[in-house]
Design goal:
With 340 residues, the chain is of the alpha+beta class. The protein folds into 2 domains: 145 residues, 60s Ribosomal Protein L30, Chain: A, CATH 3.30.1330; 166 residues, PurM-like C-terminal domain (Phosphoribosyl-aminoimidazole Synthetase, Chain A, domain 2, Alpha-Beta Complex). Helices cover 29% and strands 23% of the residues. The chain has 8 helices and 13 strands. It has a 7-stranded mixed β-sheet. Strands 1-6-4-5 form a 4-stranded mixed β-sheet, with helices on one face. Helix 2 packs parallel to helix 3.
């Protein structure tokens, strides 16, 4: 083993032997990259199907802390990119991963994060096929930032987009709200909160495949990341030109998350998830979709939370526990920074 350093130094980003050793012994071996060229050369039989479409996405991850209950920045990077592809109906196939590493970062930490990425990629059925590494001086970054891009294939005849939502369609969420945001807040240790909360970080590709296997009539889906359920629904209402009505009594919320939000004055509708989605389906497909979701671990808490309506197009409203109604607007500002 040529890599004997315990911490990353600027030499590991200098393009020489130290950088080669870091890449080969930390990244290439773990990801089993298909060669040493500056680009990945990939092919899949799904691309040969007439009418198939490529889906492409990219995302950056700056979460703090880098490791948290339920995952780490590597888990987050793979799941977040896989989910952005999957909610559009694509089958995720390939990822890239670029690392910006601060001088002094522990190589043991880097190895753990890479190992997490391999585990999540295998679960999702994707390959990390190319990437990049840069090292910056102390204070120029916060240990590590990760940027991933993903490519998937949308099979012919599959079309999921927010503008397909129609009045009467039912909104279903696959899990409890705000778990990731609450877990990150607790993990930072600033508030001396004692909780067993874990991030819901998970890939959603297999969950969506399970739903599409029982009904091809899914209108649209969004993963609930920054801005939470409220922001996702506002975006979808605007794209479809429909109103959306939620029922507060139907919102799935862990007691710990609800209690934390009450103490800190946060609204769980805006807290992030990283392994939960909202999906719109025609009303006659509701039970089939719920059954398909609940058959998988990541959809075990699936439930109906609302519906699309013709009234107040572009606006989300919620019927409160007291029988009133309030507007659920887009998040203004940042409720909790650096959660993903």
């Amino acid at each position: 083993m040529a890599l004997r350093d315990t911490h990353v130094t600027l030499a590991h980003g200098g393009g020489g032997r130290a950088m080669r050793d870091l890449i080969e012994e930390v990244f290439t071996v773990a990801f089993q990259s298909p060669g040493s060229e500056d680009q990945a050369r990939v092919m899949d039989e799904a691309l040969r199907e007439p009418g198939a479409q490529l889906a492409f996405t990219t995302d950056g991850f700056v979460v703090t802390p880098l490791e948290f209950p339920g995952g780490d920045i590597g888990t987050l990077a793979v799941c977040g990119t896989v989910n952005d592809l999957a909610v559009g109906g694509a089958r995720p196939l390939w990822l890239s991963a670029a690392f910006i590493i601060e001088e002094g970062c522990e190589i043991a930490l880097l190895r753990r994060i890479v190992a997490s990425m391999v585990i999540e990629a295998n679960r999702a059925g994707v390959r990390i096929v190319t990437g990049d590494t840069k090292v910056v001086g102390r204070g120029a970054a916060d240990k590590m930032f990760v940027t991933t891009a993903g490519i998937g294939v949308i099979p012919p005849g599959r079309h999921m987009a927010a503008d397909r939502i129609r009045p009467g369609d039912v909104a279903i969420v696959s899990g409890t709200l705000g778990d990731h945001g609450a877990a990150i807040l607790a993990a930072r240790g600033d508030l001396a909160l004692s909780t067993d909360l874990r991030s819901d970080c998970a890939g959603l590709g297999h969950l969506i495949d399970a739903v599409l296997a029982v009904t091809p009539s899914v209108r649209a889906a969004r993963d609930l990341t920054r801005g939470g359920l409220a922001s996702a629904l506002n975006e979808m209402a605007g794209a479809a030109g429909v109103g959306i009505v939620l029922s507060e009594s139907d919102l799935p919320l862990r007691d710990e998350v609800g209690g934390m939000c009450e103490i800190l004055g946060l609204d769980p509708l805006y807290l992030a998830n990283e392994g939960t989605l909202v999906m719109f389906v025609p009303p006659d497909q509701t039970e089939a979709v719920l059954h398909a979701m609940r058959s998988r671990r990541e959809g075990s808490h699936a439930c109906v939370v609302g519906r699309a309506v013709a009234d107040h197009p572009g606006q989300v409203r919620m019927t409160t526990l007291f029988g009133g109604s309030r507007i659920v607007d887009m998040l203004i500002g940042e409720q909790l920074p650096r959660i993903c």
